[in-house]
Amino acid sequence: MRESLVGRGVETVADGRGALVAMDGQRYGLTDLALIVAPEPTVRWPALVERHVTGLISSSVQSGPLSLDEVRDRLYPRLRSVADLPGPAPSYAPRPLPGVAELAAIDYPDHVSELLADETVERIGGWPVAREVAMANLRALPAMHQDTIRADDARADSDVHVLTTDDFFGPSRVLVLAETLAGIGIERPSYGVLVAVPNRHLLALHPLEGPGVVAALQVLARISTGEHDEKPGALSRHVYYVPATGAPAQQVTTFADDGTLSINVSGALAEAFAALGLLEG
């Protein structure tokens, strides 16, 4: 990959943490490429690397569109981990989940270009205008494919709904959560929803309904870590809680330095547990 970037005039050095870093600070992650080439015969690797680097270079170009009309039908909201951005998150970008930024992004045929400069978004009418268009396009995407996992065979209230899609905006359906839930037959859950957004193609959901939430949390944690670590387009290894009240989402899982996973039932999630009679005292 370094040789391919040099061929495009981009000199990089390895940062020792799974990425190549250019002189201007741009980071080019290696994890997605590793996952892409691993199952392929080595004779195909050079072509796969070239295609991957072409997409990376295209998506890192910051000139952006000149007008909203130029990208009106291809503009979407895309979720990205703030820690994985090449620099500070743009000031326009809200945080729908802790540590996760909502970016304006353009869906090209061979890559997705994120608008990482505030001035680029201003050129297409500013964030409120751009987001209205992006959200309309998001709602117009085909419904995601649904599978349901019963975390506890004895409890119907332990169901985890796993939604997958071929487009790059699976996690963005969190932004239209009520509509996404309605699409799978769930209307206005009274106690909020647990969500996992491990990679660009997957969204996992569990509406809190009863004691089955304990088993569902364990399944969501496994999905979030496994699908994050093993699939391209990684977003977040964490599970989040979205309260029914409209209060800000909270992060439910944490990882110790040794990789040990912990689940934290506190704040609004603890209040939901108490309302469901799941906390003692």
Task: Give a structural overview.
The protein is globular. The N and C termini lie far apart (57 Å). The strands form four sheets. The protein has a six-stranded antiparallel beta sheet with strand order 7-8-10-9-11-12. The model has no long low-confidence stretch (mean pLDDT 91). The chain is α+β, with helices and mostly antiparallel strands and 281 residues long. It is built from nine helices and 14 strands.
Question: What are the salient characteristics of this protein?
Answer:
9 helices, alpha+beta, 6-stranded antiparallel β-sheet, 3-stranded antiparallel β-sheet, 281 residues
Strand content: 15-25%
H/E series: HEEEHHHEEEHHEEHEEHEEEEH
Largest sheet: 6 strands, antiparallel
Give the low-confidence spans: none
List the helices and strands and how they pair.
Blueprint: H1 2-6, E1 12-14, E2 19-22, E3 27-29, H2 31-37, H3 45-60, H4 68-71, E4 75-81, E5 100-107, E6 112-114, H5 118-123, H6 127-139, E7 145-150, E8 159-164, H7 177-183, E9 193-196, E10 202-207, H8 213-230, E11 239-242, E12 250-251, E13 253-255, E14 261-263, H9 267-275
Antiparallel strand pairs: 1-2, 2-3, 4-5, 5-6, 7-8, 8-10, 9-10, 9-11, 11-12, 13-14
Condensed summary:
This protein has 281 residues and is an alpha+beta fold.
